[in-house]
Amino acid sequence: MTPIPKNITETRVENDRRVLELLAQSFPNISAASTEIINLEAILNLPKGTEHFVADLHGEHEAFRHILRNASGNIKRKVNELFGTSMREQEIRELCSLIYYPEQKLQIVRASETQLTDFYNITLHRLIRVCQSVSSKYTRSKVRKSLPREFAYIIEELMHESPSDDDKQAYFSRIIETIISTGQADEFIIAICNVIHRLSIDQLHILGDIFDRGPGAHIIMDILCDYGRFDIQWGNHDALWMGAAAGNECCMANVLRLSLRYNNMTTLEDGYGINLVPLATFAMETYGDDPCEHFLPHILNEQGASVSEKSRLLIARMHKAIAIIQFKLEAQMALKHPEWNLTDRDMMSKIDIEKGTVTLDGKEYPLNDTNFPTFDPADPTALTAEERELVGKLRHSFSVSDKLMKHIECLFSNGCMYGIFNSNLLFHASLPLNEDGSLKEVEVDGEKYKGRELLHKIGMTMREAFNDDSSEEERRYARDFFWYLWCGPDSPLFDKSKMATFERYFIDDPETHHEEKGWYFKLRNNEEICDMILDAFGVEGDHRHIINGHVPVRAAKGESPIRANGKLMVIDGGFAKAYHRTTGIAGYTLVFHSSGFQLVQHEPFTSAEEAVRNGSDIVSTTQIVELSRHRMRVRDTDKGRELQAQIDELSELLFAFRHGIVKERYYK
Known about the structure:
- There is one protein chain.
- Helix content is about 50%, strand content about 10%.
- The two termini are about 25 Å apart.
- Mean pLDDT is about 90; it is low at about 300-305.
- With about 675 residues, it is α/β, with parallel strands linked by helices.
- The chain is built from 29 helices and 17 strands.
- The strands form four sheets. It has a seven-stranded mixed β-sheet with strand order 7-3-2-1-15-16-17. The chain has a five-stranded mixed β-sheet with strand order 8-9-12-14-13, with helices on one face. Strands 4-5-6 form a three-stranded antiparallel β-sheet, with no helix packed on it.
- α14 packs antiparallel against α23 (about 470-485).
């Protein structure tokens, strides 16, 4: 008989009777309720699932796809544990390459392998062992849900049988032989490799900034929409694209400018079908004689990529055209919302076109470029008729992109401004603070908020821009607010004194380029500040942390991602190629498994083709951040607390059944 906790009383059960009657519809009698309690208690004692944290992917889809396929090096570690004494290093690399990219690797094997049946036999046995290892911390039910329908029964049979068991050896071997003889070996290998991928990462946390700089943000979003087991804390670049999709013209101009700056039109054109022909036509007509030397794409300069001079000039002219439009639109937006304290960013009104200067804070600076054919000194922020027509066409192009809207919906379905998971507080960039370290109040839509309430209100405001149930006024404010999130001084996604985009383009004096960081960035290395923030968000636990991205960690210069005596982890290691020189590495993955935290530091990834052909992998080094004194179980996690609450409810139901408060039911 399943024991009932002593704290359950008849009065308590009577008070909960309505809930228990509903629960009894799923568990109609003592046997059903007891079985479920046994099942849940067993799950509580399984090892904690492995969580992976990544940040600031910035369109680097190949590197991202690879760390999902190799589980940040965890799959190779398991292969080494299983076969390190029985396989040569080259064989281990080949097996790992097969697991990561089974379709591509099998093509090479079929073309070169003379003993294909032997290869299939040996490989299938090895893959089954790897699959058994990565599935060992899950229930059979959870593993079963990860199996492909066409091979579910066979994989499950193989995973729970051992070829070394004399009684089952012939049974096991015959299954493998039949898979090969029926011509299903390739399909089966692909299926089981995909199961290994799925079971190697239990939950994926993305701390913002999927978009911009790299070429494959849309590919990353395709992967995530199919992946399922992920959450995202939105970053400033994500908010920028969300604003563009909502129809915010300032956000659209910034998206286009950044894409042109990094010579990355792939996401715009191939990914989302944004038509850039009108912009190219306008740029050539308006800036056709302008060398636009300050607008040449950065990535081309840094990487020395081969591109024609004509193409470079076209990109530069498009770049300048949209930048000027952006500065005008932003000035209009700042004047529309004086409460945002951004009117000083109306840079166009500070230009003296005759003198070729711009005045900032009472000081006059020479402009390094004075060719402004669309600039009207009498109305500096006004768009010309041609610019307004162009903006209308671009806005339409964003609004009719079904794929972009699908990806934005995915971001909303799986994300928010912050997340709390297993005593870890996740947000992308910042939490506005005062100089004394207290939480800063920030105005959103006429009301002031701080801390957790601020991030919650911002998240709800962002959703209103896409919510048909909101009023037109609410949607308009929410649509505008995306731009404030991008560059507002008290935005938790920015938190700097200004965004000096205009200055970096047009003023050579570097002192004007400085962006003073907010107090969070100055104080967050203080353990007491981190504890105050964790308390404000209600994060509990002996080992609790804040995890951020946003600011690249200059690992090559000795900066550590671990701050505030271990309370803060900053995991922007620079996935984007544009940051490799800054960070000296190519990204971090923070791994939280049943034994504690490990930080995986990645070197630049060559290509999937190289990984398939030569068995190359992302070179990674692992640093132990924090070890648990005991192996964490499911009962030590948020999920465990949910399961314990279910057990408590079922225990009440048992009491109710045994005392006749709720009647048992039996079905034939």
